[in-house]
Amino acid sequence: MWQGPEAGLALIDQLAGDLAGYHLWHAAKADLLRRLGRNREAATAYRGALACVGSEPERRFLEARLAQVEAS
User: Fold this and answer.
1) Rounded to whole angstroms, how far apart are CA atoms 2 and 60?
2) Vertex 1 angle, CA 25 and 54, to 5°
3) Could you tell me which of 34, 41, 69, 63 has the C-alpha nearest to residue 51?
4) Please, are residues 32 and 16 in contact by the beta-carbon 8 Å criterion?
5) Alpha-carbon Rg of the chain, whole angstroms?
6) Other Cβ atoms closer than 10 A to 70
7) With 0-12 CB in 10 A as exposed, 13-18 as middle and 19+ as buried, what is 30?
8) For 29-48, what is each residue's pLDDT tens digit?
9) Does the pTM of the predicted model rise above 0.70?
10) What is the 3-class SS of the chain, one letter each residue?
């Protein structure tokens, strides 16, 4: 984060092969995209996180974030 969301996004993208089935990878990517104002891409990443998440509290959080970026 100290180098900004664009740098973080580049690092996260490098982990796609290993972590693409992990909901927190999608959620972290979505958050960085949201911070960059790239809401359509963030919504796609939040949907990816929702497809992998197992915990109901995490699901509710991700659904709220998805609604937030879709409304923007």
Assistant:
1) 28
2) 20
3) 63
4) no
5) 12
6) 13
7) buried
8) 999 999 999 999 999 999 99
9) yes
10) CCCCHHHHHHHHHHCHHHHCCCHHHHHHHHHHHHHCCCHHHHHHHHHHHHHHCCCHHHHHHHHHHHHHHHHC
Structure-token match 């909901």, residue found? 23
Residue that is written with structure tokens 């996004």 in the block: 9
Supply 35's token pair: 């911070």
Residue 47, amino acid:
R
The length of the chain, given as a count of residues:
72
Tokens 């104002």 belong to 37
What's the pLDDT band for 60 if we cut at 50, 70, 90?
A: very high
